[in-house]
Design a protein that fits this description.
mainly alpha; Arc Repressor Mutant, subunit A; Tetracycline Repressor, domain 2; 2 domains; elongated; DNA binding; TetR_C_31; Homeodomain-like_sf; transcription
Length: 181
Amino acid sequence: MATGHTDPHRRERILAAALDLIAEEGVAGVSHRKIAARARVPLGSMTYHFTGIDDLLLQAFTGYADHVVTLFEDHLAGATTVDEAREAVTDLIHTLSENPRRDLILTQELYTLAARHEPYRALCVRWMRRSRTLLEHHFPAPTARQLDALIEGLTLHRALDDPPSDRALTREAVARITAAP
C-alpha cells in the first residue's frame, strides 16, 4: 500500500468511506477498522490523519455540510429577481429531496449527533448560518430564516412521502413564506 506521501488523496478517501459507512450502517456502526477497509488504506492511516473517531466524523460531516451549502450556492447564484430566487429555492428543495437516500440519511445522522454533542451542534449552526446568508441575498433575514426551515422540512417530507408532493405545492409554499407582508 502506498505511503501518505505518495497517496495524496488518502485523507479524502477516508472521509468519503466514513460517510458511505454512516449512510449504510449509521454512526453507531462505524469504526476505524471498517473505514480503513472501505477506503483501502492501512489502519495506521486513521491515526495519522485524525486524532480519533470523533475528529474523523466531525471532519466528514463538515465536508458533507460544505457540499450541501455548495448546492445552495449553485441554485441561488443565477437568481437576479425575487421570482427567480423563489424558483431557485423550489429547484433546490426538489434537488435535495430527489438526491440519493444516502444524503437524507447523512443529514438525519448529523442532526442526531447535533442533538447530543456540542461540536456537531456548532457545525449545524455554522451550516444554517451559511445557508441563511445565501438566502439573505434575495430575501430579508427573518424570511431567510423561515425559508431555510421550509427547505429542511419540505426536503424531508418529499423524500419520505409516497408519492412526494409535486412542484406546484413546493412553489406555493415558497411563495407564501417569501410574500411581502
